[in-house]
Amino acid sequence: MKTYGFCLLLVSACVGAASAQEGGVASSGLDQGEASINVRSDVKLGIKGTGGTTSERLAKLGEAVSEQMADIRGCYRKQVASSAEVVGGLRVELSLPPGGPPNVVVTAQQGGSNELTLCVSRLLQKASWKTVGRPAAAVLSLEFDNTRARGQTLMNARVAETAHIDVHAGQDGQQEATWSTDGKEVTFTVRAQAAVARESVELVVHGFHEGYAGFLDCRRHSEKGGVSPEGDISAEVSIDRQGKGTAKLGAITVHSDRAPKCAEKAFKHLSFDKPPSPVHASVLVHFAP
After folding, report:
1. How many structural domains compose the chain?
2. Which of 55, 116, 131, 272 could form a Cys-Cys staple with 207, CB 3.0–4.6 A?
3. How far apart are CA 174 and CA 281, in angstroms?
4. Helix (H, G, I), strand (E, B) or coil at 229
């Protein structure tokens, strides 16, 4: 709430400067009606006057729009609740004729959703513009962003990276695929019989990709007390048609006494997509020194 309050003060300051100083727009190097007002939070607002709108009317228009920002953020938060990846922008063409209701045309840009477009359009249609001298017109730009979307985008990018992982034939004729964390602290090697579909091998790798944090944590615990975390953890992993996975731990060469229990916990927290048919694979988890 503190950030939102600051944003409104910022808008009010910009609006006040425009209305208090007749030469403010001219001295800034912008033509009349082309001043910009920005609100920065999860929603960024830009306003540009059109149709010869004076700086004074643009300022009043900015004040009126700023009063709608809480509800516009509400539209966006509702969208984020149902889909974390909704980001992008809306372009709003707003005109206030001398008489009659406002003309509002909202178009989605850069991934803005139809639901968000409709919600914002309804808000601006019902908004009060009594303080704005008429005629007045402006183009509003609304840019939507949130930390959940950025995190989701990053995760999707990493998943997409593993989607192109190299699945190849190992020395024993089995299918083999390897994926490592960015710093190579932990490496996962998955092996399956040649008859297993390539997509199923990738599915297993994706599961370890999603759950790699647990294994990183195991490596961190394994180096406590000055002991090297280097070593291997082997396991046999089976995934049924519902995506439920089970793991049977094999040989563990990590020196720390913490490794077995920690590894068991990390394997239990893995989740997998549903395979076309049950999958069985051998997995080797390597901790780098």
Report:
1. 2
2. 272
3. 10
4. coil
